[in-house]
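tokens incoming
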């Protein structure tokens, strides 16, 4: 991952680290790696979303571990000492700066022991469709609902999960969501 980090320009790397810190502070639901990857690629840098997701996971682990251990900036940099030879200089400078400026907010959080242990539901979209025909069946005329859930996993990476349901399945799904909403209102 260190060689992929060296591909990321300092400004994008600083933005990425800042987003991870905000995620760990529960200020944003996660890091939109798809959007950031698109912007990095538009700037002419060859990186894929899988590599960027690995970097997000590594940095999330680094910052959350540093928060759990209540490390100072110098302790964090010293702990990274074995990786100094593999991490690019600009990345170390950004990590030092971001941790110095914003690291205290994570360690001061009452959730510092449980930083980013579970994912978070971000958004839900649905659409109604009708399958008219297929290779094996000429006349389907079958209505269905496609649901797309946007979730941020424990590391903060935002992903979409899509699935299809029949109309009766969707009605049951909707009923269950209404039950959840009514229970949450009583809390």
């Amino acid at each position: 991952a260190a060689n992929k980090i060296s591909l990321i320009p300092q400004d994008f790397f600083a933005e990425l680290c800042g987003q991870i810190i905000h995620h760990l502070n529960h200020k944003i639901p996660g890091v939109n790696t798809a959007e950031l990857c698109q912007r990095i690629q538009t700037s002419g840098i060859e990186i894929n979303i899988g590599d960027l997701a690995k970097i997000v996971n590594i940095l999330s682990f680094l910052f959350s571990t540093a928060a759990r251990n209540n490390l100072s900036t110098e302790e964090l940099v010293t702990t990274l000492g074995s990786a100094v030879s593999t991490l690019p200089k600009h990345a170390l400078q950004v990590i030092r700066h971001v941790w110095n400026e914003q690291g205290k907010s994570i360690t001061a959080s009452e959730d510092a022991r449980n930083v980013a242990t579970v994912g978070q539901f971000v958004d839900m979209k649905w659409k109604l469709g009708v399958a008219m025909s297929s290779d094996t069946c000429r006349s389907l005329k079958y209505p269905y609902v496609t649901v797309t859930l946007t979730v941020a996993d424990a590391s903060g990476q935002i992903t979409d999960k899509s699935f299809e349901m029949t109309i009766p399945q969707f009605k049951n799904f909707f009923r269950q969501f209404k039950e959840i909403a009514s229970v949450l209102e009583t809390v």
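note: Helices lie at 2-5, 10-24, 33-42, 49-68, 73-79, 89-108, 167-186.
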